[in-house]
Amino acid sequence: MAKRTLKKFEEFTGLENSLEFPQEVKGKWKKELFKNDNPLTLELACGKAEYSLALAEMFPDRNFIAIDKKGNRMWRGAKTAVEKKLSNVLFLRIYIEDLMSYFDENEVEEIWITFPDPFPRKGKAKKRLTSPRFLKMYDQILTAPGQVHLKTDDKQLFDYTIEAIEAEKWNVNDSQQDIYGSSKMDPLLKIQTYYEKLHLEDGRKIYYLRFGR
Ligand SMILES: C[S@@+](CC[C@H](N)C(=O)[O-])C[C@H]1O[C@@H](n2cnc3c(N)ncnc32)[C@H](O)[C@@H]1O
């Protein structure tokens, strides 16, 4: 591992708002970790966690957990949250496949999935964060009528997700094939992630889906 990456990993571990593969947190996020009963939003595949940071500032009466498997990427978001004294956001290093070990049924109100790896090869479809096995997990941890937001630059993943959510009997509440081409853009969609900026520089369109029960 490069020295700079290793340093970020180590620093991430020491930050007061970071948790790495924690034990016995399931069902305890609101009362014991955030010490309030505010609604909980997860950002999956968060990278540097731009969404969690921006939403935590916009909605001080909600709780946010940014989730990724890479501590060196989350380090940026976690450090910024400490500097800005944001007490309503935590940074959780886990594998999203293990979500059910960390969250109880009906513990989460909302999920954002921001530019997940698209896994274009059919043989890897099970790894897509909107494949049926992940949708089933989201269904369990979300309260009704929980909402899932997906932002992606990948048309194939966007189309695949619509098919998957219809097959799993979720409702599509919003579907946009070019968010920046819309005359009335939702302010929440204006938050840009690191990968989103790269895709926009490459002239790619940004797709958005919101679905729920
Ligand atoms: C393309 S990046 C997007 C990062 C960020 N959301 C953005 O838009 O800049 C995908 C992220 O998903 C994370 N990731 C991929 N598979 C994962 C998994 N199974 N569990 C947790 N994180 C995962 C990677 O570490 C990476 O940070």
Pick out its properties.
binds S-adenosylmethionine, 35% helix, 213 residues, globular, alpha/beta, single chain, 23% strand, 8 helices, eight-stranded mixed sheet, Rossmann fold
What would you say this structure looks like, in words?
This protein is of the alpha/beta class and 213 residues long. It has one domain (3-212): Vaccinia Virus protein VP39 (Rossmann fold, 3-Layer(aba) Sandwich), CATH 3.40.50. The chain has eight helices and eight strands, in the order αβαβαβαβαβαβαβαβ. The chain has helices at residues 3-14, 29-34, 50-58, 71-83, 99-102, 132-141, 155-167, 194-201, and strands at 18-20, 40-44, 63-68, 89-93, 108-114, 142-152, 171-176, 207-212. The chain has an eight-stranded mixed sheet, sandwiched between helices. Helix 1 (3-14) crosses helix 4 (71-83). The radius of gyration is 17 Å and the shape is globular.
Structural class estimated from helices and strands? alpha/beta
What is the H/E string? HEHEHEHEHEHEHEHE
Instruction: Count all strands and give the number.
Output: 8
The figure for the number of domains is 1
Q: What's the CATH topology label?
A: Rossmann fold
What is the general shape? globular
Instruction: Calculate Rg over CA atoms.
Output: 17 Å
Helix proportion range? 25-40%
CATH superfamily: Vaccinia Virus protein VP39
Weakly predicted, low-confidence segments: none
By CATH reckoning, the class would read Alpha Beta
Give the secondary structure arrangement, pairings included.
Layout (H helix, E strand, L loop, with lengths): L2 H12 L3 E3 L8 H6 L5 E5 L5 H9 L4 E6 L2 H13 L5 E5 L5 H4 L5 E7 L17 H10 E11 L2 H13 L3 E6 L17 H8 L5 E6 L1
Parallel strand pairs: 1-4, 2-3, 2-5, 3-4, 5-6
Antiparallel strand pairs: 6-8, 7-8
Helix pairs in contact: 1-4
The site of S-adenosylmethionine has 18 residues, from helix 8.
